[in-house]
Amino acid sequence: MIAVISIILTVFLLCGSLYAFIFGKAHQRSYFSYEIFYTLLAVYFTVLTSFACLYFVLSFQGVLLLEEGKLSAMPAFETLAHSFYFSGVTLMTVGYGDITPVGWGRLLALLESLIGYILPPAFFLKIWQVKDGERIQDNRVN
Length: 142
Known about the structure:
Helix content is 73%, strand content 4%. The protein is mostly helical.
């Protein structure tokens, strides 16, 4: 019972925080930009898909993703699913360790995780840059 209440409270606080961030009027204008948010989602999806396709294609060339440290023959569709899963986990976190790249796949995973860490700060800087430009223009008009 306590776990259910904790989960509901956590979801409520998360939704409230996101609502305040997106629609909050603590400043004259909200810092949230739908255009930049959708662009960030599109960039993440593109990077995730691109790296997944790289892992999938390279799996036929000997660059493998080992599941739980074991090499096993899998059908192409399952290999593609593992490639997408591994790409998503690598891009969004540092990985769980259940799937491990071998050979050049390690370098690709390192590059993908670096991109995953750089994207959010780059988009936040872009938001602040746009807001600073608007503030400078507003000061010139006044």
